[in-house]
């Protein structure tokens, strides 16, 4: 990646440090006014955008690497009332309802924003126009978007390729969201994660609020601030992702799938809710907005569950177990069995059930991909097909996810891309997807 330019005298390099932000008692002041007036008191803060082995592209609608880190119920079978209630990062404090029910309230809220946008101001989201009309210096804002694109091109190549089919406006907006998600993930899973405290995450969340209110701290923030001013994107999924980072700081076990589902929503499902307003919904769709958001959420959950199953051994070596404790016990297994890393018949049977659940969420996601804007379907289909094949790889490894890493080889990746491209025109075709699942 090319070195980044100077902004108000600060040299921005490829590797940045977050430690000063993590240990400082006060967050740096946000930039008031237009983007070019990037003046700050205190230390300029950057989060590392350097290489990271398992960073997952936003094209997948999410999927944070679990590394560094109930009763089974069909997602599509849930039934909820249509009312939308206030939802906050404290959702985990509610115990009277399942996590799926509480998360669904966020889905309803995001869908309502899109509906309101359609009824109210008519933003021409499909126009291939230059950004920067609301900022004093459009050229500098376009540079900010370009830098976001460079990060995506360097560390999420398949995702970046898929975005090339989108309009210029959509493409740049998705890049901005991707970079924010990557930076947030780096807080607890990056090279400076040992410096991160709950207070640091509180300051990061306050910084997010400033971004949504038009007070960016740096060029990446400026791109996101402009994006959320143009699309019906709500702050709640972003705040919930920060809550997922907090969860990683304080929690290394999950009693049941209800708890794990909430974690998967926080760190991965949220990205789907962030992305749908930008990727767009097909104007000819007859599906409800809520069902499309549900599919995006399901894909994030599926990807994160796949990450967890892939990284069991790696997580165990860090003392972390991202598997439902009650289901382990029901299978006659314990954390000690995972730490020993021996594949047994009990383990194989347990893994078969976990993989089946992940595939159910992928099935749910498939139903909504075709309802996205046609230009946005290819990268989403590519992600879905490639991630499903990781589950196949776990099976091919005889369920040894302790010492063998499941991955999709380059040949299979290359073969999946044209299939995904075809599906982006044909819509979800069950017979075609089955062809690439094995």
UniProtKB/TrEMBL annotation:
<dbReference type="InterPro" id="IPR044843">
    <property type="entry name" value="Trans_IPPS_bact-type"/>
</dbReference>
<comment type="pathway">
    <text>Carotenoid biosynthesis; phytoene biosynthesis; all-trans-phytoene from geranylgeranyl diphosphate: step 1/1.</text>
</comment>
<dbReference type="InterPro" id="IPR002060">
    <property type="entry name" value="Squ/phyt_synthse"/>
</dbReference>
<dbReference type="GO" id="GO:0046905">
    <property type="term" value="F:15-cis-phytoene synthase activity"/>
</dbReference>
<dbReference type="InterPro" id="IPR019845">
    <property type="entry name" value="Squalene/phytoene_synthase_CS"/>
</dbReference>
<keyword id="KW-0125">Carotenoid biosynthesis</keyword>
<dbReference type="GO" id="GO:0016117">
    <property type="term" value="P:carotenoid biosynthetic process"/>
</dbReference>
<dbReference type="InterPro" id="IPR033904">
    <property type="entry name" value="Trans_IPPS_HH"/>
</dbReference>
<dbReference type="GO" id="GO:0004311">
    <property type="term" value="F:geranylgeranyl diphosphate synthase activity"/>
</dbReference>
<comment type="similarity">
    <text>Belongs to the phytoene/squalene synthase family.</text>
</comment>
<dbReference type="GO" id="GO:0009536">
    <property type="term" value="C:plastid"/>
</dbReference>
<keyword id="KW-0414">Isoprene biosynthesis</keyword>
<dbReference type="GO" id="GO:0051996">
    <property type="term" value="F:squalene synthase [NAD(P)H] activity"/>
</dbReference>
<dbReference type="InterPro" id="IPR008949">
    <property type="entry name" value="Isoprenoid_synthase_dom_sf"/>
</dbReference>
<dbReference type="Pfam" id="PF00494">
    <property type="entry name" value="SQS_PSY"/>
</dbReference>
<keyword id="KW-0808">Transferase</keyword>
<protein>
    <recommendedName>
        <fullName>15-cis-phytoene synthase</fullName>
        <ecNumber>2.5.1.32</ecNumber>
    </recommendedName>
</protein>
